[in-house]
Amino acid sequence: MRVLLGPDVPLPELYAVPQEPWLRLNMVATVDGAATGSSGTSRSISNEPDHVVFRLLREQADVIVVGAGTLREEGYRPNPLPIVAVSRSGSVPPTLRDCPPGQVLLATCERAERLAEARHVLGPQHVMVLGSHRVDLAVLRDALVDRGFRRILSEGGPHLLRDLLDQGVADEICTTTVPRVIGGLHPRISNGPPIDVPLRLHTLVEQDGTLLARWFVEQ
Question: Closest Cα to residue 96, out of 68, 65, 62?
Answer without folding.
Answer: 68
